[in-house]
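Let's do one together. I've listed all components of the complex below, 529 residues spread over two lines.
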Amino acid sequence: MILIFYYSLLRYNVFEPSQFILFDNYLKLFSDKTFWQTFINSLIYLLVTPILIIISLILALAVREATSGAKFFRTIYFLPVVTPIVIVGIIWRWIFSEDTGLMNYLLSLLSLPKIFWLTDYPTNIISVMLVTIWRGFGYYLVIFLAGLAVIPKGIEDASRLDGASYFQQAYYILIPNLKPTITLIFVISSTAAIKLFIELYILIPGAPMDNKTIMLYLYRHAFERFDLGYGSAIGVVLFLLTLGFSYVNVKMMERS
Amino acid sequence: MKIKFSRFAVYLFLIFAAIVSVFPFIWLLSTSFKGAEEIFSFPPTLIPNDFVFENYSGVWKAISFEKYFVNSLIISVSTVVLTIFLSSLAGFALARFHFRGRKIIFLIILATIMIPQEVIIVPLYTIILKLKLADTLIGVILPFAVTGFSIFMMRQAYLSIPKEIEEAGIMDGCSYLKFWWKVMMPMTKPTIATLTIFTFIVTWGDFLWPLIVLKSPENYTLQVGLSYMIGTFINNYRFVAAGAVLATIPVIIVFLLMQKYFERGIFTGAAKG
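Okay, and this is what the predicted structure of the assembly comes out as:
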């Protein structure tokens, strides 16, 4: 960790001896238009977090209502989670493909025009977001179920006797009690979103850097151009962002 | 009547989500059995007209699939064994020994959980370079052979064992190491099971780190090999699909066999915050 701060102050690549250049890497970074574009893309990509929270919460509530088969559904929803991301990318790249893909076939059934899922910007970011949501919701669902399990049954029973409808119950009792779980999922999912790499690497390898996220920019500089100093500077920015999420986490915990 | 309707709606919703979850896998499986023309057929067919197995033998020949599979297996199994062994020792020491700086060491270990792998990947790579381990399987295994998370889990497991057992063991005159191996370690079996499956699935699917470390094709893992394969075989999607199916089978089997332990791991992981 300390090393990365140190490296970020060096002109450091594998071809020549390293040199101390103080903040030059950062100055270069802050005036680097492509970097800012990847930064913005990463922020756009963060939208997966609220969507994932909503979907997995609703599904968790539904699984909880299911009297039989709850375990079966949980297992099914979990399959995408354990599947290696590279495989997930392979599957979806085929589904999103322009001419032979399943998505465009479905659109044609509804006589809608073709969408270039993986080549148009920002459609391609949205496609990648869809994949992230598909792969992630089963994981957060299990965390939600764990959070739901510790809410005392008594509160619910009491409110049911008072004549609360299911939705009132969910809104006034379950969700406020789930606050710590929601915060936790917010942090896990945002941290995962900000360091997104593999999905993009597999799904849109050919797209220009402007369509990609911070982590791919880091990879490009550190491991394709071997500019480890510049790569480290990007790494520091990434670190500060994840630290920011942890800070938000702590703050929200304190308030509740 | 109203209750019946809402129950129906709940199941409808659950089934819909289940289809969305599973369908892409079925599609992959179906593609892997299709013939050369059929994958481009329009409208697409879900069940192949005639099942073709040549894609599986094809992918076996087209890339050194066997080699990649073995590499992935070596990396995953060694990582699991090392993780269990090292974090058991560290967890035992942190839970049971009283020494100076124990708290600080534990805090530092906890702090490492908060830092994503991606952030420290550049310094990690330079360390591996300096150790002359770049492009070796050991270079892939070593940095993740023990993690803050695994030490934390093992420590919790040892903490939950009652003190009396330890005292009894010491009275019987066991050496500490023997006592740990014979008495304490077997008592943490459920946690070891959780950690084993967790580590296996994560390592098997890991991509970024092997991609950076491994440069020569004979050292690739399955994930890295497949990722290069989509680059070169983009028009031969059937082979890629067959390869993807083969690469997914191990994790699905491990997951289905030990699901109970896997979900427990998520709970502990979630609880740590």
